[in-house]
Amino acid sequence: MAKVLKINHIAIAVPEINEALVFWQDALGLKLSHTEDVPSQKSKVGFVPISDSEVELVQPTTSDSGLAKYIEKRGPGLHHICLEVDNIEEMIAQLLEKGIHMIDETPNTLEGRKMAFIHPKSTGSVLVELYQLI
Amino acid sequence: MAKVLKINHIAIAVPEINEALVFWQDALGLKLSHTEDVPSQKSKVGFVPISDSEVELVQPTTSDSGLAKYIEKRGPGLHHICLEVDNIEEMIAQLLEKGIHMIDETPNTLEGRKMAFIHPKSTGSVLVELYQLI
After folding, report:
1. Which residue of chain B comes nearest to A3, CA vs CA?
2. Domains of chain B by residue range
3. Which superfamily does CATH assign the domain made up of A4-133 to?
4. pLDDT category, B14, cuts 50, 70, 90?
5. B16 FRET partner, CA 20 to 30 A, in A36, B57, B63, B103?
6. Three-class SS of residue A59?
């Protein structure tokens, strides 16, 4: 049986990473480690490590992205929780067997990691990402 | 300067803890460690440890509680993120000095811990709890 290892990150939808850093970096004293462009998601991500987990500040880069629409509808704020697992394919199979709806039944691979989103209708309206380091 | 030590927990607003466990426990394979009644918040909390952090499933126990109203307005889902700090009074002083608005300028003490909430208007609409083990 596949296992959840840890909370890999909490993603926060922000209109602008630099503005968000006024709180996360200047006030709380945390540090932005780096930013990353994710053209496939039309977004830019600012990584703020906290112990062995992370806060990810996710900024839309176009006004037609899913994230921009999310912010327009729901406002900025907590967006999703990402759980690191030991075997993502096994975990997806296990969830499907339990009747859980996946957004991604096959993981997407980006350098060094595989990812898949679970549909919020199966999680009590929480967007949950599964994540495996490879 | 006070320091953030880790993500202590992610709180999820749920109409009913047992229903939420169908996903978190039965499907993902995590375990509910215990539940706790919090009469002062008119809520009940189910604790689901993940590595050295936790998911807290927070259920309103009355229909007039803040949490019940939150669920009625926004729906269930991600509710707040809790950051464990080494010195909560120092952290609050540091945040106030930076112009951050606190919901609680003085921490509330419950057995074994002190807690204070930061106002979402200073955090980009994220409800952030500070937490210190004592």
Report:
1. B29
2. 4-133
3. 2,3-Dihydroxybiphenyl 1,2-Dioxygenase, domain 1 (3.10.180.10)
4. very high
5. B103
6. strand
Considering the entire predicted model, what is its pTM? 0.96
Query: DSSP state, B100?
Result: P
Q: In sequence order, which residues have a C-beta less than 8 Å from that of residue A1 and are 6 or more positions away?
A: A90, A94, B29
pLDDT at A40 over 90: no
Could you tell me which residues come within 8 angstroms of residue B41 by beta carbon, excluding any fewer than 6 positions away? B65, B66, B67
The mean per-residue pLDDT over the stretch B15-22 comes to 97
Cα three-residue angle A3-A127-B118, rounded to 5 degrees: 105
| Complex ipTM more than 0.85, yes or no | yes
Across the interface, of A26, A78, A94, the residue whose CB is closest to B126 is A78
CB contact under 8 Å between B123 and A6, yes or no, is: no
Amino acid at B18: N
Residue A104, burial from CB neighbour count under 10 angstroms (0-12, 13-18, 19+)? middle
Q: What is the pLDDT of residues B41-81, one digit of tens each?
A: 899 999 999 999 999 999 999 999 999 999 999 999 999 99
Residue of B51, B49, B47 whose CA lies nearest to B59: B47
pLDDT grade, residue A41 (50/70/90)? confident
DSSP 8-state assignment for residue B40: G
Span B71-129, pLDDT tens digits:
999 999 999 999 999 999 999 999 999 999 999 999 999 889 999 999 999 999 999 99
With H, G, I as helix, E, B as strand and everything else as coil, classify residue B117.
strand
